[in-house]
């Protein structure tokens, strides 16, 4: 019986081979497809497969977003796409972005959906329901799990940045208070990380919060959206994340052009981003001495 | 153009007609199906449809859990099931249990999945990503939204019951601190409740926490799992919830028998639960004078 390479192994291998920390998110919106595919729900596969073919040597992972397929009843095209990635980009791992969150028997079903039906190498999860919403996925120790921690959207702070009351008797609210997302980071990185397979989702729109995450979870992989269309600061993000990160870009790559040249334009944008990330990573690792 | 009756209207109508606050959760596990359907993934529809036929006059809602269908690639059977509920139990609303949580364009796709593809009357959502993870669903003001608030599972307390630091300068952690789930209740019931369509998920395993929810959100509908297989206290739950609630039972109804009589057994258990809820609701509304 051959054992499956873990998500971590595949990711590291692809990152090294392609010299890349870029993850391309596959969020196919038919209204943004080039003619003659515009608005054609049967072209999700064709569109995404063209993006994969154009970027397979530039990325460390692909992240298909299941909602775009589910909205259109196109689960079959998602299965087809993942099979295509296996052929066109062997050993580039697939992170299924589904943000599942449920417990017990139901979480087992979601794990089965992600890891058996779609055969994804990693999955995004919501932490709100606590440990037993994560536990069923730990039965697939070779897969990666990325728990939502500090998300890149404006409302990400509605709950995630709330300060927790100190457990110390008489402790008062102050700057050193633990924030909710820091608790999530600590739980995911340690208490819930039985097999070392856990990572965190941390948005590039809040580099200071990525620093706070690194203070409590120095080594877990970070999946970082928010560069590109959402306008996160790449240099600050890379400095804060330090190492062991995947920078995700979706729309800025997929829709770099809406013409016939969309795949070439996606390749150019993916290469530009990959190289920009590498420049920032190099600068962060070799800071200029300040005079 | 006829306007669609709202979730609230349908729920109230079904609750009154069937004299019921019971919601039956449709979580089909083929391993628990009676012979000869045992382990047959093509029988999700047949099994659930038989449950619906046996309970249509006893419930105020049905709650299919999408994970059981998605794990098996059986989305078509879920579509078929919802269409069957429309015929066999007209005006009994369908709550799609999907616990979706994503933002912006992606949340729009999930809303489309739930409300257009499956035509559900209501949907469960995770609050962790904040307001912009709820906003896209508000564009369907006639549908119900149940946000996870205080869930019935053991790990529900890992995050949900964390005490928030008081905003008062020098405020110290004390019993009166707001808990995370209370903040979620307040946001969902007020700040995020533009069209009055929001409800909360609150588990019967923690009736004291349902009281706390009612203190901040006195009137929003509560979807209450945890009675039945999870062992929540029905009397305490009904007293705490007061009014405007749906008590969900899934496994205790679906698998009341694993023999040929499963549908009859489901009907007996659904009737027993419906009546038990009504007895407790009556007792809570007309407490005996204590001597």
Record the strand order, biggest sheet of chain A.
2-1-8-7-6-5-4-3
What would you call the shape of chain A?
globular
- The arrangement of helices and strands of chain A along the chain is HEHEHHEHEEHEHEHEHH
Give the class of chain A from helix and strand content and strand pairing. Answer: alpha/beta
Oligomer: homodimer
Second-tier CATH architecture of chain A: Alpha-Beta Barrel
What portion of the residues of chain A fall into strands of 2 or more residues? 5-15%
Give the C-alpha Rg of chain A: 19 Å
- Report the strand count of chain A: 8
Major beta-sheet overview of chain A: 8 strands, parallel
Q: Could you name the CATH class of chain A?
A: Alpha Beta
**Uncertain parts of chain A:** none
């Amino acid at each position: 019986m051959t054992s499956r390479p873990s998500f971590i192994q595949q990711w590291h291998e692809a990152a090294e081979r392609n010299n890349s920390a870029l993850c391309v998110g596959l969020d196919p919106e038919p209204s943004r497809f080039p003619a003659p595919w515009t608005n054609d729900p049967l072209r999700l596969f064709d569109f995404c497969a063209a993006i994969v073919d154009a970027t397979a040597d530039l990325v460390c992972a692909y992240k298909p977003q299941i909602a775009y397929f589910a909205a259109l009843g196109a689960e079959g095209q998602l299965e087809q796409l993942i099979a295509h990635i296996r052929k066109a980009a062997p050993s580039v791992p697939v992170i299924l972005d589904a943000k599942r969150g449920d417990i017990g028997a139901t979480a087992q079903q979601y794990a089965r959906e992600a890891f058996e039906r779609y055969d994804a190498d990693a999955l995004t999860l919501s932490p709100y329901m606590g440990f037993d919403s994560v536990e069923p996925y730990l039965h697939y120790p070779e897969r990666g799990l990325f728990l939502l921690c500090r998300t890149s959207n404006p409302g990400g702070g509605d709950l995630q940045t709330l300060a927790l009351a100190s457990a110390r008797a008489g402790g008062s609210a102050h700057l050193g208070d633990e924030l909710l997302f820091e608790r999530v980071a600590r739980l995911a990185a340690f208490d819930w990380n039985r097999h070392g397979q856990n990572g965190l989702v941390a948005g590039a729109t809040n580099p200071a919060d990525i620093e706070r995450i690194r203070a409590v979870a120095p080594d877990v992989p970070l999946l970082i959206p928010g560069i590109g269309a959402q306008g996160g600061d790449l240099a600050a993000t890379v400095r804060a994340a330090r190492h062991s990160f995947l920078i995700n870009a979706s729309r800025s790559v997929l829709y770099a052009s809406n013409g016939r040249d969309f795949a070439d334009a996606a390749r150019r944008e993916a290469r530009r981003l990959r190289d920009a990330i590498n420049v920032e990573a190099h600068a962060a690792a070799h800071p200029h001495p300040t005079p």
